Amino acid sequence: MLGTIVNSLAIVVGGVVGWTVGRWFPVKMREMILAGLGLVVFVAGVEMALSWSGTILIVIVSVVLGTAIGELLGIERGLQALGAWLQRQVGARVKGNFAQGFIYASLVYCVGPMAILGAMESGIQGNHSILFAKASIDGITAIAFAATLGPGVVLAAVPVLLYQGGLTLGALGLADIVAVASAQITATGGILIMALGLKMLSIKDISVANMLPALPLAALLAMLFEKVLM
Q1: Domain spans of the chain?
Q2: To 5 degrees, how large is the angle CA 117–CA 192–CA 78?
């Protein structure tokens, strides 16, 4: 769990620093920083999605069915309600959109190959190098996110701890799934990250959190497809 703990702490520290500094930024500057982050997130998603060679059908089915499931479950609505509740607890004196910062940061930090592969390698081999590298990246982006979106970004450390920690603790049992479905998960995650980039750029208001079921669905379909071929 060392790699995941360091990663979570980096998000907390970066988020606190960004929130503290960002309060002094003019509104226009914060908007431009968020737009820059949106562009970076979108390009990162494109790079991930390009790994879908030979897995296009699985990715399409996963995204379509996963989004339908997420819409029925109302995942983003639940996260928004959680953010609104947290905002009420801290009061009006704390500026920033808790729900938006929490959701944006959580998706960026959890939906990606470094989170999955790093947690798996940490659990199987005890090698935390990938997660240490991810921690440095997440810490820097947390500064930028929190500077524009407020302290909700700090709370993204919680899903990172639970998600990556769960993958680390269950690494041995999940190793076969990741080995088979790595490309499908990465490509599907890239689609979600691209959607988040479009949302951050205010090009299209996509409920990205409702698309999250596409990730486990991609893994399941990849496993089924592998068994059919065998």
Answers
A1: 2-229
A2: 100
Burial grade of 210 (CB within 10 A; 0-12, 13-18, 19 or more): buried
Instruction: Tell me the C-alpha distance between 206 and 143, whole Å.
Output: 24
> What single-letter amino acid sits at 97?
N
Model pLDDT for residues 34-84, shown as the tens digit of each residue: 888 888 888 888 888 887 766 788 889 999 999 999 999 988 888 878 777
Q: What is the pTM for the complete model shown?
A: 0.79
* Beta carbons of 37 and 200 less than 8 angstroms apart: yes
Q: What is the dihedral of CA 37, 42, 44, 45, to 10 degrees?
A: 140
Q: What is the DSSP string of the chain?
A: -HHHHHHHHHHHHHHHHHHHHHTTS-HHHHHHHHHHHHHHHHHHHHHHHTT-TT-HHHHHHHHHHHHHHHHHHTHHHHHHHHHHHHHHHH-TTS-S-HHHHHHHHHHHHHSSHHHHHHHHHHHHH---HHHHHHHHHHHHHHHHHHHHH-GGGGGGHHHHHHHHHHHHHTHHHHHHHHHHHHHHHHHHHHHHHHHHHHHHTTS----GGGGTTHHHHHHHHHHHHHHHH-
